[in-house]
Amino acid sequence: MKSVIKGAGYILVHTPDMVLHNGTTQTTERIVNPDGEYLKELPSHIRSFDQALSYWPNQVYIGNKTPDDLAAVEQPWYDKTCDVNDRYGKFGQIMPQEEFLLLMQACDVFDLVKLDKDFVAANKPALAANPIMDESILARIGEGIDGAEVARLVNEEHSEGLYHNGTLVGCVNRAHDIDVNLSAHVMHENIVSKASSVMALLSAVQNAGISKDEVEYVIDCCEEACGDMNQRGGGNFAKAAAEIAGLNNATGSDARGFCAGPSHAMIEAAALVESGAYKTVIVTAGGCTAKLGMNGKDHVKKGLPILEDMVGGFAVVVTQNDGVNPEINLEILGRHTVGTGSAPQAVIGSLVTDPLERAGLKVTDIDKFSPEMQNPDITKPAGAGDVPQANYKMIAALAVKRGDIAKADLAKFTTEHGLTGWAPTQGHIPSGVPYIGFAREDLLAGKISRAMIIGKGSLFLGRMTNLFDGVSFVIQKNSGETQAAGVSEEEVKGMIAKAMKEFAATLLAQAE
Amino acid sequence: MDLENQKRVKEFAEQYGPENVVVLLGAAEGEASGLAAETVTNGDPTYAGPLTGVQLGLKVYHVCEPEIKAEFDEAVYDEQVSMMEMVLDVDDIVSEMTSIREQYCKY
């Protein structure tokens, strides 16, 4: 039987100091142009936590506002204040940097993250008050060390500094003296990814209303790699995050595919559950420090705040069919194959129209499409346009070519079957999956019948192939059958007894 | 234009002779097409890549321009490009490309 989406978690972390110290646009600029205007201008464009909270797309990401609400707000959004500025939402939360630095320390099991003891004392109560935290995680937080020792580690031992409001408050030590894969920089990046994945896992488990012990398998689909010099991408982020999140009955593995990773992982999770291999699987991903402030130069040049100051994460709980929650339909899968080619027409055809055609459906039979859901407030000033909108225009154009809609209805199609982008530009995070939480609600409420999630990935960035990649799948309303609706042993006995009675009656009748 | 692509265009122009090279673009809008066309004719306007200050003056077209469309097998064009032709602002692209060619193209 088809698997269902039991719940989802979406979290953000406001990391203004990591924009300055860890985003590759900034670290590159510090090497090639250290005295340039950009680095001088940048600090005055950093947003406060309150500004990040009242930013419309962030409130949509954690579920306090809907994509439809956002579509009704005139762009740009950076200069508008959302009427909701709660840090908690129905899908998750927006965590401030100071709490997250403590969570990073809790997620480090090799004693690499060191925090200033005054910083720990000042901020531990705030983390303890966070509703997704429990005793097992809080007990992992140490007392901290002297500030002078933190400074010495950064200055003399190649440790990566952890800053808050411009002050050094901790560091991540290197895990090996010469192995670049265990350098302080890599460990910092990986621990941020792990800690944000833990947040997403905890939110998803809570939102799905399941117990932690029910989770049997976790698939991590972020874009980082962990390992040492002998196995650079050895893994396993999934199990590492599951350990901290307290998912004691789970094992797991990592799935990678650049921005297509989450969609690949969702299909794998659905297949694992539908096959009966595992009953409950969570797909999870933490965020990416390298992409913080990625388009910062364009934002600063145009007088905008740095909008890429959020680390993102998500997790989706996939379980056996309960007769209620929306189903993942593995009979309608789109896939960009080795032979598909890279023309946009071939890509969209392979991901959208080909699978629908195989299933005997029209493009208009899908109520909502969720391709790359990047926030246009971030991408438009950087010259990349409105990414979701560009995708909808392509899908609409293919629908016209197939005769599913008239050419005059092209614009109407993009509004009716599309969504306005709200996700941070964290690569894999905006790729198809941000809508799953809302899709589940819209399907449960009967607002829509089918949604298509589309993930696309730029494999050529890894220089192993020139190929592009992508997969898609359909979520549909539940047909009403349940896993438990099968036949029990008692019923089988009853049916056999009834059949034997009837057989005996037939024999008696023949004898007479 | 991507720095790696600038390097390749420069190498091809040296290898085959600039008069024998045609650059074919597939950019998604007029401004981006114009920037790429300017790069391979008058030099990199962003002063970042190998074509900075190099005026190759190459012939450059966008795949949706009528001159190029006429060169295609109709069925192949329909299969590979017609969807994007419907999505793009072709008039804007043609006007940008024509303007750049009139100013800087040497061949």
Count of all domains of chain A: 1
Q: Output the radius of gyration of chain B.
A: 14 Å
Order of helices and strands of chain B: HEHEHHHH
CATH topology of chain A: Peroxisomal Thiolase, Chain A, domain 1
Structural class of chain B: mainly alpha
User: Major sheet of chain A, described briefly?
Assistant: 6 strands, mixed
Strand content of chain B: 5-15%
Instruction: Enumerate the spans of chain B where pLDDT stays under 50 for 5 or more consecutive residues.
Output: none
| CATH level-two architecture of chain A | 3-Layer(aba) Sandwich
- Total beta-strand segments of chain A: 13
- Spatial arrangement of strands, main beta sheet of chain A: 2-1-9-8-6-7
Cα(first) to Cα(last) distance of chain B is 21 Å
Question: What is the 3D form of chain B?
Answer: globular
**Helical region count of chain A?**
20
Q: What's the number of extended β-strand segments of chain B?
A: 2
CATH C-level category of chain A: Alpha Beta
- How many individual helices of chain B? 6
Structural class of chain A: alpha/beta
List the helices and strands and how they pair.
The complex is a heterodimer of chains A (512) and B (107).
Chain A: E1 4-14, H1 16-22, H2 24-32, H3 37-41, H4 49-53, H5 56-61, H6 67-71, E2 94-95, H7 97-107, E3 113-115, H8 117-128, H9 135-138, H10 147-156, E4 160-164, E5 167-172, H11 184-208, E6 217-220, H12 237-245, E7 251-254, H13 261-275, E8 280-285, H14 296-301, E9 310-319, E10 327-335, H15 344-358, E11 368-370, H16 376-379, H17 387-402, H18 410-416, H19 436-444, E12 450-457, E13 469-476, H20 489-511
Helix pairs in contact in A: 7-8, 7-11, 11-12, 15-17, 17-18
Chain B: H1 3-16, E1 22-25, H2 30-39, E2 59-62, H3 66-69, H4 74-80, H5 82-87, H6 90-104
Parallel strand pairs in B: 1-2
Helix pairs in contact in B: 2-6
